[in-house]
Amino acid sequence: RRFTEWRERLRTCPKPTIAAINGWCLGAGLSVICVADFAIAAEEAMFGLPEINFGVFPAGGATKGPLEVLSHRDAMDLILTGRNISAREADRLRLVNRCVPRDRLMAECRALADELKQKDPVALMIAKEAFWLVKLQEYPEALDVEAGKHRELHFLQQGRWVSKGIGRFLEAVQAH
Fold this sequence. Notes:
- Helices cover 59% and strands 12% of the residues.
- It contains 9 helices and 6 strands.
């Protein structure tokens, strides 16, 4: 129960989260990287859901997590075969954002964190909330939630995105 609560806090953390995978990532560990916002793996990392090999199935989020980030067929493959996959295969399947040499793993994670630190923290928080709210909704309902979250962001930022964000957008367009 504590693990489930911790993983839910990770999923709903108002700040972006980054999973760095340096070795084996199996079962419950795989469920953790599925709720992190980003996952970067060392090239030597290995992933899998071996539970079926021991007469059980991946539970406690280890089935739901992969279903959130993998295609139906790829999730079913991992769940029913219990086979392990390499970091390169995990990257190809989009289980991770990318794989890098082990000696670059933490530098890659820090570089991503530094990039995210340049973003408005309230906008990041609202974007994460909106993402999880609309993920399983039908299109019309999702648009309503997005509109509500946009109004919430406007209120929390006191309209800063209008005064600053639009100017930055126009600068970026003119630069290209």
